[in-house]
Fold this protein.
Amino acid sequence: MSTKEILNFINGEYTKGTSGKTFENRTPVDGSLIGVVHEAGRAEVDAAVKAAREALTGPWGKMTNDQRSEILHRVANGVTARFDEFLKAECADTGKPVSIANHIDIPRGAANFKVFADLVKNVGNESFETPTPDGTGALNFSVRRPKGVIGVISPWNLPLLLMTWKVGPALACGNTVVVKPSEETPATTALLGEVMNEAGVPPGVYNVIHGFGPDSAGAFLTEHPGVDAITFTGETRTGEAIMKAAAVGVRDVSFELGGKNPGIVFADCDMEKAIEGTMRSVFANCGQVCLGTERVYVERPIFDEFVARFAESAKQLKLGIPEDPTVDMGPLVSHEHQRKVLSYYQKAKDAGATIVLGGGVPNMPAELAAGAWVEPTIWTGLPDDAAVITEEIFGPCCHIRPFDTEEEVIKLANSLPYGLAAAVWTENTSRALRVSGQIECGICWVNSWFLRDLRTAFGGSKQSGIGREGGEHSLEFYTELKNICIKL
């Protein structure tokens, strides 16, 4: 695998920047160096925000929705035309299997541009006829205007998909963006700059700055007074820091933060469906999914059977290199994250967990031994206040606990400060409606997991987020609604 330079993308051009700082980009598959990333300093962030600000009043700001929509369709088609290039970069950065990325990450990443480009052309605004004392009346109507320069801070678990989930609606609404991708996965965000230029996106509309959080590009971006709003996906702790920065200047924020999502399996479930769905929700993308399940609650009459069959299914998971089409799981995204996940594996052991499966580092071939690998892991027997039950791990692991009543399991599901997602498995429709309605979360699946309609509201409750994205709900963040009143 050849080593390449990954540059910042500012005002339509790639630049190393003036700081001279770089950092390594290593694949988690075997630890080998795949790129050298040029870190943005304050000067680069200033230049990116200035370029974005100027683009708002330039050609981009003068375009109609139809004209912007046409360009964004070309962006989507450009990603598709270079599908293999994006796929290779994404899998190298994340280590995830090609079999996952080629039907989720890249096609969904491209589709986000088309979905929102079409949406903005088909959303109407409100109007009211208002009576006045003189009898002539007035007409009140609303218009949507872009919010301005949007700071986008995107995560490493689905780098292209979750970045375009924000950039797509932001650009469709007429905003400009400065994107700070995760330092772990910078490649596809940088590569998208080439596609933007090829599609005819004016300079300054899409900018990319590389770096870290504190005292680096992330902090410089969120603190910049020229940024009108900030959207972020990542840890709750980081969201709190960004919110403090956004308070200066009273900038708007949209956050999708951490989660510790419950899966609830009732005795009247379809066992095959429940096992298959929970397998995906626990182990997909090596457990590095914000919507994934880390707490599984199973009704006592089927508890032993579920644990046994679930463990047997998990034993069949195959770990390996991204290019192998038979592989189910790759490595974690980095050695730093591997250390975090393994620390929780140790905490579970120290707390007296019954280790049903896994709990350590797998034996990999010599050429992969330096990768960030961990075993798929299942625990039982821990108290409800154990760290692995109350804290987000973001790895391929879960704890399974029995329950006896609806009231008990609803209380357990709602017991943590997070409220992102949940899954309920039951063939009883009345129970499904009762339970799903009482769980404190942004999205609750019944007899499914990760079944997403992009028109629906997406976001978290409690400490799992602020605001909603998806469909018309994205317009609420990426536009300002202005009321115009005309006296007749």
User: Anything to note?
Assistant: The mean pLDDT is 97. The longest strand covers residues 138-146.
